[in-house]
Amino acid sequence: MPELRKDPVLGRWIIISKERSKRPTDFPVEKPRSGGGFCPLCPGNESFTPPEVWSAKSDENGAEGDGSGWMVRVVPNKFPALIIEGDLAKEGVGLYDKMNGIGAHEVIVESPDHEESFSDLPARKMQFVLRAYRERILDLEKDLRFQYVLVFKNHGKAAGASLEHSHSQLIALPILPRMIVSELDGAKSYYSYKERCLFCDIIRQEMQQDVRVVCQNERFIVITPFAPRTPFEMWVLPKHHQSSYCLQSDEELYDLACIFGEALQRLTACIPNVPYNFVLHTEPLRSGGTEYFHWHFEIVPKLTSIAGFEWGSGFYINPLPPEEAATFLRKSLEK
Amino acid sequence: MPELRKDPVLGRWIIISKERSKRPTDFPVEKPRSGGGFCPLCPGNESFTPPEVWSAKSDENGAEGDGSGWMVRVVPNKFPALIIEGDLAKEGVGLYDKMNGIGAHEVIVESPDHEESFSDLPARKMQFVLRAYRERILDLEKDLRFQYVLVFKNHGKAAGASLEHSHSQLIALPILPRMIVSELDGAKSYYSYKERCLFCDIIRQEMQQDVRVVCQNERFIVITPFAPRTPFEMWVLPKHHQSSYCLQSDEELYDLACIFGEALQRLTACIPNVPYNFVLHTEPLRSGGTEYFHWHFEIVPKLTSIAGFEWGSGFYINPLPPEEAATFLRKSLEK
Questions:
Q1: How is chain A split into domains, by residue range?
Q2: CATH number of A40-331
Q3: pLDDT per residue over B77-101, tens digit each?
Q4: Distance CA A10, CA A30 (A)
Q5: Where do the Galactose-1-phosphate uridyl transferase N-terminal domain residues begin and end (chains A, B) (predicted)?
Q6: Of the CATH numbers 3.40.50.970, 3.90.1150.30, 3.40.50.620, 3.30.428.10, which one belongs to the domain with range B43-331?
């Protein structure tokens, strides 16, 4: 019997079609082809990107500015979806509404090594990437035109990556994205009913039931959510209530790097070369610490196709129950 | 300067990134490969599908039941996402909600001819497909377990089609899909403010401005919407207010077939072999004719990829302004 499940945050329903249940090896993954040739994100080619807006230098090497010696480097996107200069010029056109496409679009180069993927980064290196996210959000927060900064990653061609060199992106937006509005609404309505954070309650229940927990450390937990959109979808959450990603100390970011890396290694062990996206959902800029929202990463492997039904309904069909996905992920690093 | 535009129905914002603006030939389309071999949807192979639930027979040929002689044939999906037998058994699991995956999942075989695509169907044949949608919704409406029937089509492998033989599908659902709820909410809130149907107002404005109209006849209009998710997205709407698709007469369905076919031929002339999805949005079952909702088809070509940003935000980036798409589509059938 297939099952309908409701995402407790968004109210989005999904179909778990157990009859079509699959093993990790049933998901075909295209082998990545090495592009070869010139890479604008590699050390030595810094002049091919716009000037950097943030970087982390290695300790041994004191190189400055756009020179080499960086471990992580943030630069404006050369082909931005939104542009930084100008004002919003909000305008109505008959019954329609529009505004200028003002925003920031930046690229976080995660490693100087062209071959090193995000999931392979040792925690002390991944920590710098996670720090870059925090520092860039804090900086863009000062620009009062922006309401939200969305940090995301496309890994693998099928997941939308156009450059091979490992990188993530952020887009600062002048309006709250619909998905964030829905999450905030869902979380707020639960809070006003229960006086408790919905995500804290989810974590508590997941730790008790222990059927969808993938891995955890003292500060963080990784689960397959109750109503996942895709096989092997995972959420990474801080165990203790924290509304904004930016409230984290460097020490906490190190612990986050450990568990985030482990989650992705488990995923990759299940499905080699898996294309995936991840996004950071944190509270809107300048919210000042809400009681009801709880930041988290959502990792969404690209293994199923979005077709007419999903487009038309906002409903997803997922052939793999999250309990089975969690079992595969828990066992995946056993020798 | 890129532009942010708000969909007036859903409140969903999209980015029109004009700087990345493209011509139809800039969208790479994979050539379809003919699968060859056995086709369960071809005449003569009727016994390889579950027994038909509806069919239209050709006039000349009086064959009955599952024999050949059909023009359009509706059968239960052999691998359904939801199943028809059982009750919903709604249940809470701690803070989560679930129910049995009860529903209907049917396949509408659009032609006996394996090679004939939906957009190639002459109006008198396409009318039978459109009639099948109406008849199946009317029949499934009698089942009080269902709240909605979503009709959709996946054309081309990239758009999720798994069989080559031209077909569409429907899924009857025990709950209202989130996308429909959002459309109803948006339309209802506009109506309560203005006392007018939002879609009727859109049609009036589009006909006046005449920059996003693709084609029209006496009863129907095809537009590229103001805030399209993808290049060449089109909406097909009845010009006069009508909340339910099922209220249409056979004569109206013939006119719809003419304009629907023309819209798809224009699309295919712009981008040969274009993969696309379409969905029918009509009022929920047993609504009895709302003043505020207006049924329509949404045609969504699969030309851009859904990556981390779209997943995380519900925001779409579209490189082609709908005014330019409309111009290409209007000129596409000129010799």
A1: 40-331
A2: 3.30.428.10
A3: 998 989 999 999 999 999 999 999 9
A4: 32
A5: 3-177
A6: 3.30.428.10
